[in-house]
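Posted in: Structural Biology > Protein-Ligand Complexes

Title: Requesting predicted complex, zinc ion in pocket

I'd be grateful if someone could produce the 3D structure tokens for the following input. Sequence and ligand are given below.
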Amino acid sequence: MELNCDRYLVVACDTSTDMLACAVAWWTPAAGAHEHARIEVLASADHLCRRHANVELVNSVKTVLEDAGKTMDDVDAVLVGRGPGSFTGVRIGISTAKGLARGANIPLHGVSTLDATAWRAWAAGVRGSVGVAADAMRGEVYPALYRLDDEGAHRQFERERVVKAQVAVEEWSALPQAGELQLTGDGLVRYGARFEAAGLTAHAVSREQWWPTGEGLLLAAAATMGSVPLDRDGDPALVLPIYTRLSDAEENERRRLGLAESAHVDTTGVADELAGRHLQLRPMGAADAEAASDLEVRCFAGAGHTPWTPTMFLEELAEGVAAPRSWWVAHDDGELIGIAGGMVVDCDVQILDVAVDASYRRQGIARKLLAHVSYDAQMLGCKTASLEVEADNAAARALYEALGFAETGVRRGYYGAGRDAIVMSTTLPLVLPVDAASPEPTAAAKRVWPAPVPERTEAERAAIARAQPVLAIESSCDETAVAIIAADGTMLANQVSTQIDFHARFGGVVPEIASRKHVEVIVGVVDAALEEAAASLELASGPLMPRELAAVGVTQGPGLVGALVVGVAFAKGFAFAAGAPLICVNHLEGHLYANLLTTPDLKPPFIFTLVSGGHTMLVHVRAWGDYEVLGETLDDAVGEAFDKVAKALGLGYPGGPIISRLAETGNPHAIEFPRALNRKGDYRFSLSGLKTAVMLYIEQENKAGRPLHLPDLAASFEAAVFDVQYKKAKAALHATGAKEYCIGGGVAANPHLREMMIRKLSRQGIRVTVPPQGACTDNAAMIAVVAREKYLRGEFSGFDIDADPNMTL
Ligand code: KG4
Ligand code: ZN
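-- Reply #1 --
Done. Output follows.
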């Protein structure tokens, strides 16, 4: 350990481009506020590594540390490139860096990758006007202008943005300094010729220097935070990628809502009956302006605050308003019941308005709306949120305080004579992960980072040693989940942060949104799990520390690649920094092992049905790890069929729970739907025919002007699906002679499926196990169960593993 506390050992990395930038350096803070820190690079491993960043990054960190004669224990802080760049690349770098910093309990700071590229040119001796054109794919670049003098690289722009390559060509060739502009950035690989054709010189900076380096990152940080001692602040939960736009799905939706006269498209004539069951949130559209204004009047008439008029809302939503806006509405039963909006000004989102209908208060609607607005704002580069609230409005102030807002000023007489406004602000992300089901957030205590290292008593140390806690991370789809299990199988922590709210309005999971949310919440969910585990182990001295973990497990696949990489990259950095072995878990095995939570003595051979959103399988488990897949679906998975039928009926997402609730009062024999591949000995499944039959039925009833009886439809659909599941499971049990049966996956949460299997198969002398209802849909407890088994067997993975979206059993 370095005794000289005047300088700090920093690891810097960036994988936003094809360059894996990685270096370790001494950071000596500057004495004055406006000076640069001094950087002394000890070792670097910058190299081009196309698409292999997740395979190579942690080992590159290991290598630079070894080259410098250091270990992770010596490192005082981590620095990471936040992009903009390749979405997956940025996520890998940031997730790994979060893992490193969280695992070593040290600060993490972010830096713009464009700045790092400019500083690299500076370090190579380039001076004068420099244009960085970084590749944004799909014909676009991130253009960034700098002036380089002996002092350093100075930004000539405020915010990172993305434009068509041709737009950058035109903008730059029209500049007064066009003649002397020197270009760099990896966008030149593709578009260099276009810049040259417009008279710009694309080869002033040599091609090897078109990418960022570890040193470039360090210099860029040294210039902006020169006097910062790196051993404090820098909460890894708060470092996020630099995005220049929302996800495609959200962008498209905004365009559509902005244009559409009516946002309520009534496809089936059942929307009203169901909207009542389901509170929906979506971005505000032009069609909402009248209702939003009415709500304002209802909420604020006579309260001093002048209600917004429809025209004011329309102006907010207009294209091309100077500052980007985000407005959200909540509606129920076709009626608008809540709104919130904000405006982005210089990395701060100013909350302009929050209103919730009086009869819907205390249901967490304001919190949800604000979470969406602040999420958008974060994606648009905001770091803080601020708002004004009337000093006398205790309820509103309490809400904002619970969300982490703190008073930063007072505006006297803002709401009229004698009525002051309190200015409150907070850093983003606004809401640390809270259970979506819990109506109000737990009071957000401002966290101290790095976390103080608890002083353990002898007894506590013994308890931890006995427990051998294994932490497991799940991020394959739309839940960020972390669980901690003891070697004896006790579940010490089980945390889930669900994103369902963010996907529901698209009728399914949007991969790009899923991925962004994982990056945003993963540190918070890990924190919550470490705290919960400390409570389970009765550690009064403080949360479980990463170094106290016996191993770190993570879902490697199958799943959405952009979602998996976040968990995998984080887990690798975290395990490496914590000095814990890494364990890879197959998500499907997790669904199977969830059965051990209810039946610890479950023993192969047995038959296992896997029914989830992505998979439908009938499996003969001959021994643990020895799986004979008897049959799979030829088309849609069972959960997918539930989701698609629900979407067609306008019922929202996910479809499974909605349909199963409707089915409770329905008659399963009311409608005769087809059972596919119903031949004996055929263990394959097919659900697309059934899905089509349901669609045709809806169409036919609509045409005939008959109202749909939703409960009957839901019950009959379920019966068709589950009938086939039962028959095939029964046939497989007979054919293999197995006497045990279990089930897993999101659809296994369905009470009718569970009851039916238990009732019918038990009668035939089969022992039936179903996982706890809460462990059917994606969770980390099931991943932890598998990780524990592997830990006890010493089955560890190297730090060069990558996510595998196509893994199978
Ligand atoms: O296992 P899971 O959480 O994610 C995947 O690994 O795919 O499964 C999610 C699926 C969704 O399609 C959802 O509609 C379905 O499980 N699901 C249900 C129920 N709860 C969730 N399907 C039927 N009945 C339910 N009660
Ligand atoms: Zn799953």
